[in-house]
Design goal:
By secondary structure, this protein is an alpha+beta fold. The protein has helices spanning 64-74, 90-93, 99-103; strands spanning 3-5, 26-28, 33-35, 55-57. It has a single domain (3-82), classed as 2-Layer Sandwich (Alpha-Beta Plaits), CATH 3.30.70. The chain contains three helices and four strands; from the N terminus they run ββββααα. Strands 1-4 form a two-stranded antiparallel sheet. A two-stranded antiparallel sheet has the order 2-3.
Length: 112
């Protein structure tokens, strides 16, 4: 088992999770974060830290697409270990449907 970031992170990109991760397995895209599944130690400390509830265990049904996305982009995007402010308009995107289709960006973020 591993934890993964799902679509509710898109355009919210809260970073509370990165500062509690003991193994620094978060990677930053332009408008979301992902977890490297091979680096995650399944401790679960990040899950309750996410205000958008975008972090899930990969054992939950229907998350195969998100496991693939986390795996792919964790190898392309820079590592992030320090919390920064998310987008100024992030709250208005929290809970919106269809965020992947409408807003996902494959571009990397800044990282540390």
């Amino acid at each position: 088992m591993t934890f993964i970031v799902t679509d509710n992170c898109i355009r919210c990109k809260y970073m509370d999770c990165v500062e509690v991760c003991p193994v620094d397995c978060f990677y930053e895209g332009e408008n979301m974060l992902v977890i490297h599944p091979d680096e995650c130690i399944d401790c679960g400390v990040c899950e309750p830290e996410c205000p958008a509830e975008a972090i899930k265990a990969d054992t939950e049904p229907g998350l195969e697409k998100w496991l693939e996305l986390n795996t792919k982009f964790a190898s392309l995007w820079p590592n992030i270990t320090e919390k920064r402010d998310g987008p100024a308009d992030g709250e208005k995107f929290d809970g919106k449907e269809g965020k992947y289709e409408k807003y996902f960006s494959p571009e990397p973020g800044e990282g540390d």
